[in-house]
Amino acid sequence: MDTGNTEPILVRFSEQVNHRHSAQEIGQNEEVFFYSNECDMTSFRDRLKYMLNERGWKQADLVRKSGVSKAVISVLFSDPLKDLRVSSLLSIAKALGCDPLWLYTGKESGTYVADTHLGKVSVWEMSDLTEHPTDALHTLDGRDTIYSDYDGQLIGVIANDDNLAGSGIKSGDICVIDLADRTPRHNDVVLARIVSSEQDRLLKALDGLSGITLVTDDQRLGVVPIKDAIIFGRMVELRRNTKE
Questions:
Q1: How far apart are CA 81 and CA 133, in angstroms?
Q2: According to the model, what pLDDT value does residue 124 have?
C-alpha cells in the first residue's frame, strides 16, 4: 500500500515475537510496514538497531530527538549489559514511537503481565547470561520455560558441572534463582560473577570468621571472598534433571 509517506511509521504491534520475526504486515490508520524475516531481535540492542533502521536514523538522530546523551547512547550499542536508567529508556522509546517494555524485553505489556501471573520462569544456560543485562533476564524468553509457585524475579539456570554435587546440584539440574534476593546466607547457593575472571558460576556461601566466602566442592577452584564477586541472586528452588 502506497500512502505517500516515505518515512517508516511504527504502529501498534498486534503481535510481538521475542526471537526471529516472520514477515508480517501490520497496519493501523492506513500506515503499513513489514517486519523483515532476516531481522534477529533477541536482545535490547538488536531491537534498538532495528528501530533506528526503520526510522532511517543514525545514533546522532536518536541523541537529538530523545534528549539522551551521546555517551549513554554509545554505551547502549558498545556494552548492552550496561544498566539502563528507566528515564533514558522511556525517552528513547518515546522518540522511536515504540512500547518501552517491548524495546527492553521483546514482550508487549499485556504478555509480560500474563506471564508473571502464571509464574512463568525462563530457563537459561550459563553461557547465555553474558548476552543480556542480568537484571532483565526474568523478563526475557530463555531456552526453555518452567513454572514456579515462588514469588520474586525468578530465572532458571542450568548447572553446567557437578561442582556443587555435595549440595545436591548435578550437571543439568535447574537452579531457580531469585534476582531480587542478593544477600547470601550460610549454606545458600548463589548465582555470582567472579570479578577477576568475569565468569558466571553457581557457588555456595559459607559464613566464617572473615565473613561470607563463596566456594564449590572442587577445592582446586579455591575460595572467593564475597567482595570479589557480584551476587546476582540466591537459589530458592532446585529442579532435578529428569533426562538422565
A1: 4
A2: 94
% of the chain surpassing 90 pLDDT:
37
| CA distance readout (Å), 61 to 56, 187, 225, 228 | 9, 51, 45, 40
Distance of alpha carbon 153 from alpha carbon 150, whole angstroms: 9
Q: CA dihedral in degrees (43, 48, 49, 50; nearest 10)?
A: 90
Indicate the pTM of the whole model.
0.58
Please write the tens of the pLDDT for every residue from 41-83.
Answer: 677 888 899 999 989 999 999 999 998 999 989 888 887 666 7
